[in-house]
Amino acid sequence: MKQINFYKYQGTGNDFVIMDNREGQYDWLTDEQVHELCDRRFGIGADGLMLLNKSEDYDFAMKYYNADGREGTMCGNGGRCLVAFAHKMGVGNGNYSFIAVDGPHEATMDGDAWVNLKMQDVHDVEHGSLYYFLNTGSPHFVKFVDDVQATDVFEEGRKIRYNERFAAVGTNVNFVQPFENGIFVRTYERGVEDETYSCGTGVTAAALTFAGKEEDHYEIPVQTLGGQLEVKFDKTGERTFENVWLCGPATLVFEGQLNIR
């Protein structure tokens, strides 16, 4: 048996198991063990697991696993939660530069529980007759609907995620409804293979596709099942976006110790 010290964080209901791995003390974790830790009935329960790793060139490195145990692509809410965790661990001074699977990121803390995370620039958006498809660190299919609350996100999202085009690699699927000056977003996440309360890269993708036709600076309020986020960005061309920031809460839920085989 091996003992782990873990922290459970959530960002608008998107929840994660986090461990401080700066000394490499959890390099032995297997995909199967990650899956067991994320299991909501037999483990801690989470949408994903992250390791805070040491980096020679940045404040820290982010390693992210989906709930199925496989290493994942970029997770926006996970990145925000990991920044909040690094802050708790005494890393940095509230302004961060870290490296993730999709490249370098910047982040800032406002207080102890609000994180502003700079996402990757987006220079290509596929626009079909009823959808958008783009990569904001993870691939996202975005579909605007009339009533997002009435949408069967699990069934409809699963159909798209496993259709002929996406079945091999998968995609996240977002259903979006405009309201007032913002949007409501619900997301089916690959790797979790279910709807989550929030998805940071999905919220970002939805906000970018919601922007008007003008090249301008946008600040889009986004409602999710788990709470409120904001996406700020500059639209620099018809389908190009830069200076993209995902902003919202990231809070510690609990911490503990667990023995695993």
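That was protein one. Protein two is written in the same sequence-then-structure order:
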Amino acid sequence: MLRWLWPFTVLLSLSAQAQDLVLRTAQQSGSLVKYDPDGGPNRPGICMEILQAVQRLDPGLQFTGMEQHVPLKRVERLLADGLVDAFFCLLKSPEREKQWRYAPIPLYTIRHVIVQRTDDARHLDTLPELAAASRRKPVLVMRGTALAKRLLQADVAIAEVGSEREALQMLLMNRADVIYGQDINLQRHIGDARLGSKMKFGRTVFQEEPQYLALRADLPAAHEERLTQALRRLERDGVLRALAEKYR
């Protein structure tokens, strides 16, 4: 009996994948590593490339709304209000998991690191050390991110900024001494601005976190499974790992 059911189950799965499915999404503005409107077809951003890889793997699966370039807080509101169905890529937090779901396959991992001026001899290796240093000048962190909430929970005084580029300019002008952010984003902006001789990374990785595909809370389970199957295949084939290496 079970031997007859298994092929039937596979056929149902293949039939579901053959059906056209259109999901709403958006691009995050101000995050060039994720979505780079000026990066061209060879470097459009890691999250855009993952989305494109999913579409190539499952041609019946399409995404609309890519013309929307919205800031992170707007992305969160769209997800919470069910106005987008899926968003590549987002960190998890307890607050976020109350408002929407996540596909279980990690897309890539970011590291929490600090950046200082090269003439700053201090080693700030722990959150308590960051908290003490922040009493003199607040630590810069990207506005509205899960990283900002983590620093506040650790009693670190922060100043939120709109972009890594703005943070680096403030650091150059001595308006701040430390940036706390994602390694992959900071590396990109330091390289683009040719600030490698003026900026240095701290020697500590404070935390590692995977980015995930976020899904609106009431997305049908069959749609989530279809997306998960595609991501699982990309993970198994090494595509996700290769993309993460490409953007580091």
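The two ends are 51 Å apart (CA to CA). Keep this in mind for the problem set.
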